[in-house]
Amino acid sequence: QLQLVESGGGLVQPGGSLRLSCAASEFTLGYYPIAWFRQAPGKEREGISCINSSGSSTMYADSVKGRFTISRDNSKNTVYLQIHSLKPEDTAVYYCAAGHACYSSTYTDPARYAYWGQGTQVTVSS
Questions:
Q1: Are 53 and 30 in contact (CB under 8 A)?
Q2: Cα 97 vs. chain centroid, distance in angstroms?
Q3: Distance of alpha carbon 28 from alpha carbon 118, whole angstroms
Q4: Average pLDDT by consecutive 10-residue portion of the chain (126 residues)?
Q5: CA–CA separation, 126 vs 122, rounded Å?
Q6: Selection from 113, 91, 105 nearest residue 35 by Cα
Q7: Would you call 70 exposed, middle or buried from its count of C-beta atoms within 10 A (0-12, 13-18, 19+)?
């Protein structure tokens, strides 16, 4: 079974940057489109970005467009989420997910994904 592992979260000041990673062991991540979600306390899990298996196509939610960049290095079996200009409202647990294509109409639906990582906490605070 595909196992995903996120890393790179932490405590950062407003305006700062982070790069999150999503890695897989024992499976070739390059076969899979990968999505990033986040979940803030008391809120639903929000789909924020998706990248197809080759990296040639990416999608972003309006809430993160222009500040978040998704990319992948299939030679390293890793997908990245670069986050700039962090805001307190970006505070959440960030998850990567696999098992669904990057369709604009459905990639934000968490129910469509079979594989999830354990999440990495991002806290934006001064």
A1: yes
A2: 8
A3: 19
A4: 93 97 87 96 96 96 95 95 96 96 92 96 97
A5: 13
A6: 113
A7: buried
